[in-house]
Amino acid sequence: MTNPLRFFSFILSFTAVLQVSALSDTLYIQTNTFSLATAVLAKTTLRKDTLAAPQNANLEVSLNETLVLTLVNQDTIEHYFSWHDQSANIWVNPGQAVTLSRTFNSFGSYALLATDFMGQRLGASCTVLVGQANYKRFVWNLWENNANESLQIAAQNQTTIPSQYRPDVFTINGLDYPLNMNDTLGMVQGLVHDSIYITVLNAGNMLHPIHFHGYHVQVVQSYLAPNKVNWKKDSFPVQQKDVVVFLLIPDKPGQYPVHDHNLTANTSAGGYPGGMMTMIEISQ
Amino acid sequence: MKQLIIFIGLSFSWGYAQNVQEYWLQSRMNGVYELPTGSNVQFWGYGDNTPPNPGNKIFLPGPTLRFKEGDSAIVHFQNNSPEMHTIHFHGLDVPTAYDGVPHTSVQILPNATFDYKFKCAHAGTFLYHCHVLTPLHLAMGMYGMVIVDPAAGTGTLFENGPAYQYEYPLLASEFDLDWNTNPLSPGPFQLFEANYLMINGKSGAQLLDGTHDLYAQINTPMAIRLANIGYGKVTFSLPASVQVAVVASDGRPLPLAFSTSQIEVYPGERYDLIVSSAFVLSDFIEVVYEDLRDQQIMGTNQVPFNIGLLSTHQLPSESYLTLAPNPVQDILHLNNAAEQPLQVRCLNAQGQTLVEFEIPVGVSNQVLAVPSGLYFLQDQFGQRLKFVKVGL
Questions:
Q1: Number of CB pairs < 8 Å for A and B?
Q2: How far is CA A102 from CA A81, A105, A138, B352, in A?
Q3: ipTM greater than 0.95, yes or no?
Q4: Percent of chain B, pLDDT > 90?
Q5: Which string of b and e fits A156-189 if b means at least 16 CB within 10 Å?
Q6: How many angstroms separate the Cα of B123 from the Cα of each of B19, B20, B155, B161?
Q7: A208-264 tens-digit pLDDT
Q8: pLDDT for A88-132, tens place per residue?
Q9: B251 DSSP assignment
């Protein structure tokens, strides 16, 4: 290395390679009581703020970006979390904060899911979309529960999974239909021939078979059903804790529902239509 | 005059480049379903309404609608019931106006009619069902299958797809008999409890009466169209010895066909299989129904599955090989109705082979020098006939 200029240039380029962009964020863990369309229930959430609202957070990072995430536990019990594709648990004591980081090197969607009993049953989770900023993209964070049981779990009066599980509240992004009609994260809007990515996280306690009216979608990602990637489907079973990404390229304009085809989940407190349903609106 | 020109133009454009396939369907809410116990429950459903003799019956499931890829479909619907109904063509990706969802298209008033129009763009297996108060109307029986053949017609599942010579749809569904007994007061819809589990509208012993058997000749491809319109998970298990290729789902060919003997079909899904066997079989497709909420097994069904030597279905009593008399004293009279000689082994009750011989096509006689006892003749396809030898 006889040329000092070339040596300096080499050091600069090495430093540039080492410099990985990072995004810092903070999520608050909290359990609250909510009133949905016709039910009062409890839910644990991961949110960017401390508002008592039923929606979990959705984060976005660029490809190869590092997410530095601080989890602040506002609850009175400890919570555990893990990434949907990893087994290592992150433990957050009540009133404390833990910082974790992850670099995302693959296009797709990820989820951080609670693994403790209360957090898991009550749907604490967040989605992370990687490399999708240039596309129209939407997120459906699915969660259901029995409203009375959710209140008992939040009060720590119920600590085991019931042998006969009969949920009566079914939500997308924390809201049941038609309350979710103003949810811009979940209600799909686009144009004919758009490439629209839809991330579906099942943070609930049972499998949800999602049916698309009007269009077939291509399965881009499924962690728990990787053999179905590239299939074109109108009905897809989203397994518990799976993160599925669908690519929708609409061939025509229209207004169509998307819903759980286990039709007991299309209800709010027993009434129809309700529950796990949203809409796709495509313009010319 | 201008209106006439527009009308002629529209008619010409509709009928010129496309094959129009029409069906006439009606809905009624007065179906009577006989349970295996002999008691009756009510069901709602669809029936044929083809003029000039439309009839007044509905069926469970409703009539299968069959189109060809590229067809322009018109389904003339007449609601002959006291409540509103629609038809949702599940998976056919029809225009919003004909999607059958009340709040985005139309719901058909009592005694009203409506023409559903759509293009059949893809070959495959699809469904149709009412989308008014769907948890109840569907659970009461308002559904059926739609099959779209390739443009060339039946015989392959899709263009350039695998060929078949036999074809069987297996549509899984469920009743909550409390709802069918009292549909006006079903209670909260999320409390549906499936307690009567069906394949093609039949359950339990109804499937074993000989009229619901799947049958194919050996080494001859059979297409099975699986669909689930119920609210739980349905697992179809085929006999382990048969060859199964899963080739399509939801009306689209799979990027890569795969082989399995167990196919899980979730609510709203469809799978198309090509099945064949190199052996004669008399077995069952086992069907297991599971509650999605707590993974409890709700029940099972068996669908008879037979592979034989002849091109047409043989009932067990119509075996291709018969023997007489039975019990036999000295000469066994054999009749081989198969289209080839049979290589058989005579087995004793312990399964030991005593003698092997060939049975020619047609009638022949065989002397069996074996002691008195219970014996079996087993051919190269696995079929066994039991006989008793006496008095030597």
A1: 132
A2: 14, 9, 22, 66
A3: no
A4: 72
A5: eebeeeeeebebbbbbbbbbbbebbeebebbbbe
A6: 15, 16, 12, 10
A7: 999 999 999 999 999 999 999 999 999 999 999 999 999 999 999 999 999 999 999
A8: 999 999 999 999 999 999 999 999 999 999 999 999 999 999 999
A9: T
**Contact between chains at A233 and B252 (C-beta distance less than 8 A):** yes
Contact A266 B135 (CB under 8 A): yes
CA–CA gap between residue A60 and residue A69 (Å, rounded): 12
How far apart (Å, rounded) are the C-alpha atoms in residues B171 and B177?
19
List, in sequence order, the alpha helices (H) in B72-204. Answer: 134-139, 177-181
Q: Which residue, among B67, B77, B157, B160, has the nearest Cα to B121 in the 3D structure?
A: B67
Higher-confidence residue of B370 and B248: namely: B248
Nearest residue of B to residue A236, measured between CA atoms: B269
Distance CA A165, CA A207 (A): 13
Q: How far is the C-alpha of B15 from the C-alpha of B328, rounded, in Å? A: 69
b vs e for A88-101, b when ≥16 Cβ sit within 10 Å of the residue's Cβ? eebebeeeeeeeee
| pLDDT at position A283 over 90 | yes
User: In this structure, what token pair is assigned to residue B372?
Assistant: 């008195």
CA B113 from chain centre, in angstroms, equals 29
CB atoms < 10 A from the CB of B374, how many?
A: 13
Interface of A with B in 149-208 (CB under 8 A): 162-168, 170, 206-207
Structure tokens at B12: 């010409």
Q: Does B37 touch chain A (CB under 8 A)?
A: no
Q: Which of A170, A262, A269 sits opposite B188 (nearest CB)?
A: A269
Residue B59 sits at the vertex; the CA angle it makes with B58 and B64, to the nearest 5 degrees, is: 115
- Tokens 């000092």 sit on residue: A4
Task: Determine whether the interchain pair A235/B269 forms a contact, defined as Cβ–Cβ distance below 8 Å.
Answer: yes
Q: How confident is the model at residue B77 (pLDDT cuts 50, 70, 90)?
A: very high
Cis ω on the peptide bond leading into residue B327 (within 30° of 0)?
A: yes
Closest among B180, B223, B215 to B201, alpha carbons compared: B180
The percentage of chain A sitting over the pLDDT mark of 70, rounded to a whole number, equals 93
Written as one string, the DSSP assignment of A208-268 is: EEEEESS--EEEEEESS-GGGTT-EESEEEE-TT-EEEEEE--SS-EEEEEEESSGGGS-B
Spatial strand order of the sheet with A79-83 comes to A58-61, A125-130, A108-114, A79-83, A90-92
Rounded Cα distance between A129 and A222, Å, is 14
Q: What is the largest CA-CA distance in chain B?
A: 98
Nearest residue on chain B to A275, alpha-carbon basis: B190
Count of Cβ atoms closer than 10 Å to residue B385 Cβ: 16
Q: Return the DSSP state at B139.
A: H
Q: Which residue is associated with the tokens 């969607």?
A: A109
